[in-house]
Amino acid sequence: MSTNPPIRVVLAEDQAMVRSAFVSLLDLQPDVTVVAATATGEETLAAVEEHQPDVLVTDIEMPHGSGLDVAVELARRKHPVRILIVTTFARAGYLRRALDASVAGYVLKDAPIGELMVALRRVHAGEQVIASELAVAAWGRPDPLTDRERQLLREVADGAANAEIAARLHLAEGTVRNYLSSAMAKLGARNRTEAAKAASERGWL
Fold first, then answer.
1. Strand order in the sheet with 105-108
2. SMART domains under this entry (predicted)?
3. CA dist 165 to 51, 148, 155, 170, 186, Å?
4. Who contacts 9 (Cβ-Cβ below 8 Å, separation ≥6)?
5. Measuring CA to CA, which residue among 82, 139, 84 is closest to residue 115?
6. Which of 26, 84, 137, 144 would disulfide-bridge 92, Cβ 3.0–4.6 Å?
7. Model pTM?
8. Over the stretch 70-106, which tens digit does the pLDDT of each residue have?
9. Domains delineated in the chain
């Protein structure tokens, strides 16, 4: 029997049923211990700082900070935790952003549980693991958007009008229109809603 300490994991997943099921599956593994389970980006950052896990297993879409936002912030803090993203989103844009944030693994939720456990152990061992169906696609068309354009398109995707966006981000309404016009041109979109949808489908938001 191995005398190695268990892999300490923080699990981040906003859907309660999925989170509970995933915790149960991880706890069945003799070499894994779930030290915290979180539902938002803010909770996840706090849990990583409190528990200092070996691996953070996180979804992408969560309230108050996505899994990608969490990864970027942890990279900024130079935190040593290894990050494994487990998501339904097979989007090359998301994978590219994950790699830019030094994420160690990116696998899909529809993979067999055995594959997910192998990915977790490989990430903990210092390897990089990428879903095979995304490995080639990740190096396709690069994201043309600036951070500000991406921020404004997220607001559009949430249904905000230009005036609301301007007030929330302390920008002139004309400035908002200019940024959105630039994003529309880059994406070949006829309007801001179409631009937000196109960017989301490519994983650039």
1. 32-38, 7-12, 55-58, 82-87, 105-108, 129-130
2. HTH_LUXR, REC
3. 37, 12, 7, 8, 20
4. 26, 32, 33, 34, 35, 53, 54, 55, 56, 57, 120
5. 84
6. 137
7. 0.68
8. 999 999 999 999 999 998 877 777 888 888 888 999 9
9. 7-139 (3.40.50.2300), 147-201 (1.10.10.10)
